[in-house]
Amino acid sequence: MAFFPKKSKALYEAAYKTFQDWQAKNRVQATDEKCLLAYFSQELKDKSRRRSIDISGFMNLKSFLKRKLDGYRPKKSKIYTKEQIFKFLKEAEDSVHLATKVALIIGVYGACRREKIMKLSLDDIEDLKDSIKITIPNTKTKIMRQFIVTKGEAPGVDMLKLFRLYAEKRPAGTGHSRFFVSYRFGKCTKQAMGINTIAKLPRIIAEHLKLPSPELYTGHCFRRSSASLLADSGVDISVLKRHGGWKSSSVAEGYVENSLQQKKSIATKILDEAAEVSEPSEVHIVTSSKNVPERQAESITVNSTLSDTPSTISLPMPSSSSAHKPVQFNNVTNCTINFYQTK
């Protein structure tokens, strides 16, 4: 059908063919709620939606599918830390991993999927001397994005230098405008880098860094690492959405929710708040007569428990003179004050 996406049309057709075979095998002619409920009960992995069949009103079927999804957790790619990224960029040999380094830089700076890294063209890149501007057109979310690659502040790592070094190795007369071309033995070829090759780069990086389970670093690793690092920096949801090109807040909120730094910040605030509520405020006032004859030594200790509102402590003066007014202290903790009083 015309409304099916080109990339997944074959999958839809294959799933529907499986459904038709099931109907023929079981001699089922009607395509109604009862038929679909029986089919999904037997073939959980197959889904069918064709012939403009609207299953939104099939409540029993929807309840059945939701029950089967309980406890399901989609597999997600593992991510790199900032230290791991800098370590690879600094220590990996350029003669072997230069293309991988540049793909890592673009993928993390721009939160790029593997498809966008593969399709990046020379026309999408603008060298601004002090930085490089990259435009990602026609994204999955239909939002054009731009991002900047800078030199970086990590010692021993110049990202602009790596980027330009790889660009300079591009062979003359290459018959396409794709930026990423195959890289072997310190030289670029004219062959464009394929999507499967790019999808393997995160695993290659993980293997070089000797990270556990390198096979879990998939083609989505660069994008997830970028969003996670940005969320850890403490930016708000709007910045994260613009960076990743997400229309919905739900995906961006997921990165913030899973941010380790955010969890640590929350834990610190909880502990600090608890300390403020439970810890008493003590003001210890000492007067001394040392080297000051005709002055009386006094010692007054006042305890006040802090609450959510600012606390005010009023101290009566030792003198009975009405000329002396009480001294007030606001929001004090373990404070020692020395003063003298004339007899």
What order do the strands of the largest sheet run in, or round the barrel if closed? 1-2-3
Number of helices: 12
Any low-confidence stretches, pLDDT <50, length ≥5? Answer: 45-50, 277-281, 286-299, 301-311
Task: Please tell me the CATH architecture of the domain at 82-263 by its name.
Answer: Orthogonal Bundle
- Helix and strand run: HHHHHHEEEHEEHHHHHEEEEE
What key attributes describe this structure?
343 residues, alpha+beta, hpI Integrase, Chain A, 3-stranded mixed beta sheet, 14% strand, Tyr recombinase domain-containing protein, DNA binding, DNA-binding, DNA_brk_join_enz, Tyrosine_recombinase_XerCD
Characterise this structure:
GO terms for molecular function: DNA binding. Residues 75-268 form the Tyr recombinase domain. InterPro entries: DNA_brk_join_enz, Integrase-like_cat_sf, Integrase_catalytic, Tyrosine_recombinase_XerCD. This is Tyr recombinase domain-containing protein. It comes from Culex quinquefasciatus (Southern house mosquito). The protein is α+β, with helices and mostly antiparallel strands and 343 residues long. It has a domain at 82-263: hpI Integrase, Chain A. 42% of the residues lie in helices and 14% in strands. The protein has twelve helices and ten strands. The protein has helices spanning 9-25, 33-42, 59-69, 82-91, 94-110, 114-119, 159-168, 195-208, 221-232, 237-244, 249-257, 260-278; strands at residues 125-127, 132-136, 145-149, 181-184, 187-192, 280-286, 299-305, 312-315, 327-330, 335-338. A three-stranded antiparallel β-sheet has the order 1-2-3. Strand 1 (125-127) and strand 2 form a beta hairpin. Helix 5 (94-110) crosses helix 7 and helix 10 crosses helix 11. The model is unreliable at 45-50, 277-281, 286-299 and 301-311 (pLDDT under 50).
